[in-house]
Amino acid sequence: MANMLKSIFRDPPVLQTNRLILRRMQRSDSSDMFAYAKDPAVTRFLTWEPHPDEAFTRRYLTYVSSRYKAGEFFDWALVLRTENKMIGTCGFTRIDCKNGLGEVGYVLNRNYWGQGLASEALQRVIQFAFDVLNLNRVESRFMEGNTPSRKVMEKSGMTFEGFSDEPLMTKGQSVAVGVCSITKDAYLHAETLSGLHLNNL
Hints:
Layout: H1 2-9, E1 15-16, E2 20-23, H2 30-37, H3 40-43, H4 54-69, E3 74-80, E4 85-96, E5 101-108, H5 117-131, E6 137-143, H6 147-155, E7 159-163, E8 168-170, E9 173-175, E10 177-183, H7 184-199
Parallel strand pairs: 5-6
Antiparallel strand pairs: 1-2, 2-3, 3-4, 4-5, 6-10, 7-10, 8-9
Helix pairs in contact: 2-4
């Protein structure tokens, strides 16, 4: 499976939703990415600090390009169809091939919060995880206090499992971490129920 992952993500497929296009990040995205990556409100519950300037963002995207080439980067840019603008990212922060596990994460420009875009992207990535990568379980984590992120996960079909016994040390603080997850069986069951509902309309 590891070789398959590298083959897929060296040139990650373009994914689509009603409002979004998920594609590989590009160095030309630096202005759009910096617009949200510099925002302390966006990075408050993330492990990384705000980007200090756009040059830093360009260097990061150059690094991302090299990781894509190696087939070792599993994240997509989120492009809003109506504006043709990158407004965030969504993808896998970790894929455990041996155990069929994927961990997903996302970040979104603050100007687009509260519109259901993060859950729309996350649902598409979860679908990719089960239908294409054939994973058995997808999970996501959020820092205590980040209730909106938990709601994104639950809206995407995940179930809240509780807080980890091991806190996360980040930005000089010890923070409790919540875990949400969905298994392939639960995903397929939900898809079946959705299909039955549509057929009965």
